[in-house]
Amino acid sequence: MSHYLYKCFDCSTEYTPEEIENNFIYLCPKCGTANRNEPLKGVLKILYDYIDIREKVSGEQFLKNPIGEIWNYPFLLPLEVENDKISKVTFLQLEKLRLTKEPIYNIEKNLQIFDDTRNPTLSYKDRATQLIILKALQIGIDEISAASTGNAGSSLAGICAKLGITSHIFVPKNIPASKRIQIQSYGANIYLVDGSYDDAFDLCLDVSKKKGWYNRNTAYNPLTIEGKKSSAYDIFISQNGELPDYIFIPVGDGVIISGIYKGFWELKQLGWIDKIPKLIGVQAEGSDAIVRYLSTGEFNFIEANTIADSISAGAPRNLFMAAHSIMDSDGFAISVTDNEILEAQKALTAKYGVLAEPSASASYAGYTKLKNQNNLEENSKVMLMITGHGLKDVSSLEKWNDSPKIRSSEEWKKELS
Questions:
Q1: Does the residue 302 lie in any domain?
Q2: Three-state SS for 212?
Q3: pLDDT tens digits for range 299-323
Q4: Is residue 148 a part of any domain in this protein?
Q5: Rounded to whole angstroms, how far apart are CA atoms 26 and 42?
Q6: What average pLDDT does the segment 220-234 reach?
Q7: Are 46 and 226 a contacting pair, CB within 8 Å?
Q8: Residue 291 maps to a domain
Q9: Which residue, 159, 281, 360, 374, has fewest beta-carbon neighbours within 10 Å?
């Protein structure tokens, strides 16, 4: 008997792993839909026997786990487990999936950064890919597909290259050149779509179904949400159970914030924390569907337009779960302009030495905006999620860095004398 089950976020119908996984089902068979330019319906959650886990494992024991090694707590993963270990996976394969061991550091009093730019492919997306690959290894999958604005694609391409798995990446035509080249360099099959991320997402679904490829599409594959919860565990472990009051999270499709919420929610179910930190979703003004949804209760498709490509999504596929995650944590969502994002990127780099891409810089932009408006509780502890490295999108850096002058050695000596 499996130690986990699938439950529909919308209709609450429960399914066994065999029903979902053996048939390569991704959304709820009863109510799931993946319509063009709309959020997904019937997204599946993965649940465990939290009472049983609580009886067998204490919070103090869990705090002893290393950071970045999810295989040390298989009882909280939707994987095949034998003798308290993940089965059908070798130690060498696990070593190739290791994430950064020190993601958190202080940059000011009561202000911390969770820096996932030091993961294997330089982004937070490695957390989801890590779990997807473990599942693939267990069930013998050798071809995986994904639609991406860049980071999820490079993550899948890079980690598949490590494990000898073929990857198929669908990307929009406006993907930053740095991310496109990263994907290609890993040897992935890349399909440049003449359209938006939403177009690439829909095409990936259609082609993958016909080809029989395992699909990593964010939110569509419930393991993407489940993989991204590991940062909540890493925060819990690295802070010895002392959590921040606020966590600022860049939001596009809504999967990262949903995963982080899921991790903290589980820690609370297990009795290891009393309260979930307030999750603040930060969106670009040109891609603010979740901000609008929380304000009006309605979703209306507006094509996304922002410099922050990694959070550019006109139809956030995990909108409903993301909105619930924000509200249930007593948080909220805000939008920032592209100019505010670029100013935040510049400040993070020059002031703190943190080179983040525009989407990751949005978390600092949102924090700065609220701080200047005095909308944060005094002396509250804040954490910023930095989800992608600045070299992922060099073109954005060029917008606020002038081309340096070229001088001969003699000219420089004269000018600097």
A1: yes
A2: coil
A3: 999 999 999 999 999 999 999 999 9
A4: no
A5: 9
A6: 98
A7: yes
A8: yes
A9: 374
